[in-house]
Amino acid sequence: MLTATAALGVGFRAHVKSHKTLQLSKLQVGADIDRPAAFVVSTLIEAENLLPYLRECEAQGRKCSASSPLIYGVPIPLSSVPRLVRLAQKLKPGTIAVLIDNQSAFLALKEQLKTQNEALHTLGKDALSIGVYIKVDTGYHRAGIQTSSPKFKEQVDIVIAGCGKDFRGFYSHFGHSYAGSSEEDAANGLLEELQGLEEATRAVPDPAHRLTLSVGATPTATATQNMLASNAIPAVAEFKRVIQRLQDNHDIEFHAGVYPLLDLQQVATQARPSAGDPRSGFEPLATSSIAIKMLVEVTSVYDEREKPEALVSAGSLALGREPCKSYPGWGIVTGDLGNAGNDKIYDAQGNKTGWIVGRVSQEHGILTWEGPKEEMTPLKVGDRLLIWPNHACVAGAGFGWYAIVDSERDATEIVDIWVRWRGW
C-alpha cells in the first residue's frame, strides 16, 4: 500500500480499527521518518493507545500528514469531547481532527470546545486547535452528507466560518465497495469516490484554500495497485486525469484498514487478481494472503449425517454473524495444521470442496462438508483447526491478543504475542 500510494504521489492514512494493535499500526506507516505517519481511528481507545507512538514521531521530527496526523473517523459523540480534549492537550496543536456531517452536530461541537477552551484559559493553558473534515456520503449511506443535499453548501459555509483554516477538507469511506466482484468494480469505485469529493470542493468559496481529500476502503485503495500495473482497466486513464487535476489545488490521500489482515469478504471483492500477476510484483488477493485465522477445536463429529458435520468451539461470538457473498458459510477451514489435506480446502472460486462453518450459534459452530462425501477429509474429536473468518474486524473483537506465527516457519510455532486494544 505504501509503495502504491507513493508511486501515485498521494498520501496514505492508516486505519487501525480492524486490528487495534500498535505493531500493525507501525507496519502500516512504515519506518521511514521522512514519510508522513497519519492515522484514522474509530474509537478513542485506539487514539489513546496510539498516543505514545505519535509523541515518538513528534520527537523524531517525523511529519504526520499534510493536514491532521490523527482523524477520529466517525462523527464524535458529544460526551466524548472532554476525553478528546485531554488527548489533544498531550499532542502538538492541530494534531487531531474530527468528522462532521450535519450543522447541528458542528454547532454543538463548537460550543463544547468553547467551554473546554474557557476552562483551559482559566488554568493558564493555551486554547486547543481541533481540525474538522466534512464527511461526504459518496454512496455508502452510513454517515455523511451528499453533495446533492440542499443543506450541503450551507454546511460547508458554516464550517468554514466557524473553523477558518482548521477546516481541513473532505473525507469519504466507500464501504459499499465490499460488494464489488472485479478489478473493474474496485477501480470504478475509487474513481467515483474521487469525483464525489471533487464535486464537494466546488462548494468552497476560496479556491486558494488547499484542502485534503481523503478517500478509500480496502477494495478501492487496493485498486491503486491495479491502476499502476495496467492500462487494460477502462477507468485507469480517467483515474490518472482526475488525480492530476485534483493535485493542482488539493492534497489527496487514501485510507484503508482491513488490508493488513484481509478476510474472506475482501477476497470475494476480487479487487486484485487471485493468482500470480505478471503485470506487477504485488501479492495476489487470495485466501493464502489472509493473515487472521481463528484457532478452534473439534468437540463432536457427526459423519453419519447425510452431509457430514462437526461441532467446533467457536460460534457467532468468535466469528461474527456476517455472511459472505461468495459462499454459504461463516468461515473456511484452512488446512494449515494438517487436519485437512491441502487439496481439500474449500475454494469459493474453484472446487467448492472442503470444510466450512456452515452454521453458527453463540458459542459453537457447525462445520459442514461441502462437495462429494467420498472425498471428505476425516475429523476427530480434539483436532485443532484454523479458520479464515468472513470479516476480520468483527472476528477479532472477541479476543484480547493475537498469537503471531511466521508464514515461512512452522505454523504451530508462536513467535510473538500482540495485544489488542479493547473498549471504546
Automatic annotation (TrEMBL):
One GO-annotated biological process of the protein: D-serine catabolic process
SUPFAM superfamilies to which the protein is assigned, alphabetical: PLP-binding barrel (SSF51419)
Keywords on record: Lyase
GO molecular function, one term: D-serine ammonia-lyase activity
Keyword Transmembrane in record: no
SMART domains, per the entry: D-ser_dehydrat
Location of the D-serine dehydratase-like domain: 291-406
InterPro entries with a match to the protein in the record: Ala_racemase_N, D-amino_acid_metab_enzyme, D-ser_dehydrat-like_dom, D-ser_dehydrat-like_sf, PLP-binding_barrel
Entry similarity comment: Belongs to the DSD1 family.
Name listed for the protein in its UniProt record: Putative serine dehydratase domain-domain-containing protein
Species name: Clohesyomyces aquaticus
